[in-house]
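Record now logged underneath.
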Amino acid sequence: MTTTTKPGELTGDYVLDTAHTRTGFVARHAMATRGRGQFDEFDVAVVGQS
């Protein structure tokens, strides 16, 4: 399940569960080739408006 919330609607503090989160990217070069990658270790904290 994916939930989308606009940043201005956040209240409170959030910390992502990195064991159940994946962060990846795709980079394109000259629109001909693609390189894919992912971050194996990361920390994320989101602070919403009070």
Summary: Residues 22-50 form one domain. Residues 7 and 48 are 7 Å apart (CA to CA).
